[in-house]
TrEMBL record, chain A:
<dbReference type="InterPro" id="IPR012310">
    <property type="entry name" value="DNA_ligase_ATP-dep_cent"/>
</dbReference>
<protein>
    <recommendedName>
        <fullName>DNA ligase (ATP)</fullName>
        <ecNumber>6.5.1.1</ecNumber>
    </recommendedName>
</protein>
<feature type="domain" description="ATP-dependent DNA ligase family profile">
    <location>
        <begin position="309"/>
        <end position="431"/>
    </location>
</feature>
<keyword id="KW-0479">Metal-binding</keyword>
<dbReference type="InterPro" id="IPR050191">
    <property type="entry name" value="ATP-dep_DNA_ligase"/>
</dbReference>
<keyword id="KW-0067">ATP-binding</keyword>
<keyword id="KW-0132">Cell division</keyword>
<keyword id="KW-0131">Cell cycle</keyword>
<dbReference type="InterPro" id="IPR012340">
    <property type="entry name" value="NA-bd_OB-fold"/>
</dbReference>
From TrEMBL, chain B:
<dbReference type="InterPro" id="IPR050698">
    <property type="entry name" value="MBL"/>
</dbReference>
<keyword id="KW-0540">Nuclease</keyword>
<keyword id="KW-0436">Ligase</keyword>
<dbReference type="GO" id="GO:0004527">
    <property type="term" value="F:exonuclease activity"/>
</dbReference>
<dbReference type="InterPro" id="IPR026360">
    <property type="entry name" value="Xnuc_lig_assoc"/>
</dbReference>
<dbReference type="GO" id="GO:0016874">
    <property type="term" value="F:ligase activity"/>
</dbReference>
<keyword id="KW-0269">Exonuclease</keyword>
<keyword id="KW-0378">Hydrolase</keyword>
<dbReference type="InterPro" id="IPR036866">
    <property type="entry name" value="RibonucZ/Hydroxyglut_hydro"/>
</dbReference>
Length: 525, 341
């Protein structure tokens, strides 16, 4: 555990992907199984469940500190694990036997009965230093955030084993922590792990947002143009070993969409957008949201909001793999596959007929008015299916955001990187001479602006409600958002999709901000 | 008479009405007491300034000879009478242990005693006499690190981290961000005490104040201005000290393979350190940590505690729990300057 805590501490403060990779490779070389495999799992986010809940940590802490002081500390630090790491009192009698290895600790928590978890955790926290406590809580609640993504972990493993990242990608979803077979293969001590009998996720190909320079170079005749649907990206996998629906990050979300999955029988790996669809009619993201995160959706919900897949690419059918075929060919294969499928839930994302620049721009404007789509996708006809985000292959051209001038009403401190800065803002619009909150925004400002905003909040606080500061109603921000929906949950009757700061209008008087009725004009019909 | 009837918070800062004098005013005023030389407490342009001789020297070093019209140097424990001669306010300075020359202010008026602690700490600091417990009715305390998450480790363990890093990364220039006044000199002294005898290199902004400390008899060892180093590449593996703001500045780009380090009480919060892109945070503070704040209230045993700049809420709550009458005094303007932490 000492080595793992040291590694996290160093990774946290070391900038730069290369330096981080060097630290991790050094750790992998010097750490035995299964400790190092669990460390990989912790960093790549592949631990299957929390060892303990944040709430259990909080309860243990509250048995040891005044709750008001705890709340104030948490509010200031902005992160539970670090707050507890600092606040946890060192007991007068310390059990100073050496800490066991990471693997042993993981096993202990995995095998602990429900009632044993808290005493086990308290015992370890008593025996640890502040930075070890931080590492344990991060590990146990699966919230590492040390700047190592799953993707970079795979690249690091490829470097460690002197192999290509594609090899790791292909194996990744078929191997499990603590990755003993994988590491053994990477060190040349055994054969490549065999994953042929598993239903696995295949890493997806991602697009870049388009900018004006990219747009200028595009000849529409060399590109496939489609709508960018406003749903969630999924991968549908059906093999002789079973079938599954994965999110774009590889999470298995099959359980939430049995109505779609049950209709699929042919062996395939398809890439597409999960949507609520009434026949071929696409419903809004707002509706889809009601189907997300339902462990066991009720039949009534599935009947009223049926899930469908708008397929736009094919990775394989049966035993034939198409990763290395150009999009133009994959499209023909997909077209044929969807045509002969029996599933009424499977649809083909239409290819839009555009051959000139002006036509493309007209189409973009039309797409901006369509509520079920959020812009256009442009994909090179000769692009192979390359996992990751290769340059110059696929672009997304999102519709222009909508803008309103709103007044900042409340501020709260942020978390993580923004910890201890006031960075979460509630803003409102005028109804007569009353401001009604219409949303919250956490992003869109520069670090420099964040400092200024933080300072402004401190100087303009007029009230406090726990961690929330009410501020003088004088600062106008131009808020950008993707869509507005009616909402019965909010007093203002409106909910904004992905609101963020567009510009801070230090100059603009608050009474010139938008009225609620003006904002409501932007609700999509 | 209760201090609440003769002390108030005005736009310029804390004001003692019968003496017509401000403590650490942020705007130019007629009469000022300056508790210590940090820029957010000591400003230029007042008519009359009362302070310790060291603080006056620091102000002169920073702002020039005409930083105030008249100055009154006051030794610790000397008393002056201010205001109406028939109904005077007695004012005395006591050591605060914060930096060279730092003081607390005791006001005595119509039978009651008010102590303004200024910034202070309870740890040993070789550059100034230790904080003195002054009995009083109302004690005004700072709360820069007024949350129980703040417990500053001994300076020796933090300096050890720096020395270890010099051994692990012998080719990297160890650039330590430290506030020019107080922190910089404490870091140098702690390095010397840990046996580090090589020259220490200084950013131009630190030189005058280090010279001042040396004139006051504080032995900082061999110091070399970075500007005098012709070949900056030779600073690989050396310790360079600069104001924290210089870390992200163009100035630091001329240094070889910089390892960014900051010495500050704020460095205890990881996200803070990372926000500043610090690779090696050193938790070294010239303020009280939470246990010291509580200990001080216990030691002083005032009737009332007034809490200023910093995280007032927690300390007010804690003092109340301990049975003291406590309230927050909102003096804005000091807490923004985090470099002095």
């Amino acid at each position: 555990m000492d080595a793992f805590a040291d590694l996290l501490e160093q990774l946290y403060f070391t900038p730069g992907t290369n330096a981080k990779a060097a630290l991790i490779i050094e750790y992998l070389r010097n750490t035995p199984d299964p400790d190092r495999g669990w460390a990989i799992a912790a960093m790549a986010g592949t631990l299957r469940f929390d060892f303990f809940k944040r709430n259990a940590v909080k309860q243990l802490m509250l048995e040891r500190i005044d709750p008001v002081l705890f709340e104030l500390s948490y509010d200031y630090v902005g992160e539970m694990s670090e707050t507890v790491a600092h606040l946890w009192p060192t007991p007068s009698e310390v059990n100073d036997t050496a800490l066991p290895g990471l693997g042993e600790i993981v096993e202990e928590f995995m095998n602990a009965k429900r009632t044993e978890v808290k005493p086990l955790l308290a015992d370890y926290l008593n025996r640890m230093t502040a930075s070890q406590r931080w590492a344990l809580i991060k590990l146990g609640t699966r919230g590492l955030r040390i700047g190592v993504s799953a993707r970079s972990m795979k690249q690091i493993l490829a470097r460690f084993g002197d192999t290509r990242v594609e090899e790791i990608e292909a194996l990744w979803h078929g191997v499990n922590p603590p990755y003993i077979e994988l590491l053994s293969w990477l060190e040349g001590r055994s054969d490549k792990p065999d994953i042929s009998d598993q239903v696995t996720f295949h890493p997806v190909m991602l697009s870049h947002p388009i900018d004006e320079n990219d747009l200028a170079t595009i000849d529409p005749s060399q590109w496939q143009t489609e709508y960018k649907y406003d749903g969630i990206r999924v991968q549908l996998v059906c093999t002789k070993n079973g079938k599954a629906l994965f999110s774009r990050t590889g999470d298995d979300i099959s359980h939430a969409f049995p109505d779609l999955l049950d209709t699929i029988t042919s062996h395939c790996v398809l890439d597409g957008e999960l949507l609520v669809m009434h026949g071929s009619q696409v419903d809004t993201f707002n509706q889809l949201q009601q189907r997300l995160n339902k462990k066991k959706p009720a039949k009534k919900l599935m009947d009223s909001l049926p899930a469908g897949l708008m397929a736009y690419d094919v990775l394989s059918i049966g035993d034939d793999d198409y990763h290395n075929k150009p999009l133009s060919e994959r499209r023909k294969i997909l077209d044929a596959f969807v045509r002969q499928t029996e599933s009424p839930r499977l649809h083909l994302s239409p290819v839009l007929d555009v051959s000139t620049k002006p036509a493309l721009e007209t189409l973009y404007r039309q797409a901006s008015d369509d509520t079920a789509v959020e812009g256009l996708m442009l994909k090179r006809l000769d692009s192979n299916y390359i996992p990751g985000r290769p340059k110059g292959q696929w672009y997304k051209w999102k519709r222009e955001p909508k803008l309103v001038d709103a007044v900042v009403m409340y501020a709260q401190r942020g978390h993580g990187k923004r910890s201890s800065f006031y960075s979460d803002f509630t803003f409102g619009a005028w109804e007569e001479d009353i401001l009604l909150p219409i949303g919250k925004a956490y992003s869109g400002f520069t670090d420099e602006e964040l400092k200024k905003l933080d300072n402004w909040v401190r100087r303009n606080t007029v009230g406090r409600f726990g961690p929330v500061r009410e501020v003088k109603k004088s600062l106008v921000v131009e808020v950008a958002f993707d869509a507005a929906h009616p909402s019965s949950r909010h007093k203002s009757g409106i909910a904004l999709r992905f609101p963020r700061f567009h510009r801070i209008r230090w100059d603009k008087p608050a009474n010139e901000a938008d009225t609620l009725s003006a904002v409501k004009q932007l609700i999509e019909k | 008479m209760h201090p609440q009837d003769w002390v108030s918070v005005e736009e310029a800062g804390l004001y003692c009405q019968p003496a017509d004098i401000y403590v650490d005013p942020m705007l130019p005023v007629k009469n000022a007491i300056v508790t210590h030389g940090h820029a957010d407490h000591a400003r230029s342009g007042h008519d009359v300034v009362y302070a310790t001789p060291q603080t006056l020297q620091i102000m002169t070093t920073r702002y020039g000879e005409d930083m105030a019209k008249t100055t009154h140097a006051m030794a610790y424990r000397d008393t002056v009478e201010l205001g109406n001669a028939d109904d005077p306010v007695r004012m005395t300075l006591f050591p605060a242990g914060h930096i060279l020359g730092s003081s607390q202010v005791l006001f005595e008026y119509r039978g009651s005693r008010l102590v303004v602690s200024g910034d202070y700490k309870r740890r040993h600091d070789p550059t100034c006499p230790p904080f003195e417990v002054v009995p009083c009715d109302v004690f005004i305390t700072e709360a820069t690190f007024g949350l129980p998450v703040f417990t500053h480790p001994p300076i020796e363990t933090e300096i050890d981290k720096l020395i270890t890093s010099l051994q692990v990364f012998p080719h990297r220039c160890h650039l330590v961000g430290a506030y020019a006044l107080g922190k910089c000199q404490r870091v140098i002294l702690a390095l010397r005490q840990a046996g580090y005898i090589k020259p220490i290199y200084l950013h131009g902004a630190l030189i005058r104040l280090c010279t001042l400390y040396q004139k006051q008899g504080v032995d900082l060892g061999k110091l070399i201005p970075v500007n005098d180093v012709e070949d900056r590449a030779t600073l690989a593996g050396e310790v360079v000290i600069a104001p924290p703001s210089a870390l992200a500045d163009r100035w630091s780009r001329s240094l070889p393979d910089v390892r960014p380090i900051v010495a500050s009480g704020w460095m205890q919060i990881r996200a803070r350190a990372r926000q500043k892109q610090v690779e090696l945070p050193l938790i070294i503070s010239d303020h009280c940590d939470w246990p010291e704040l509580i200990q001080t209230i216990e030691d002083v045993q005032p009737d009332e505690v007034w809490v200023t700049h910093g995280r007032e809420d927690a300390l007010v709550h804690q003092a109340t729990q301990m049975g003291f009458k406590a309230k927050a005094l909102s003096l804005i303007g000091y807490e923004d300057d985090e470099e002095t932490g």
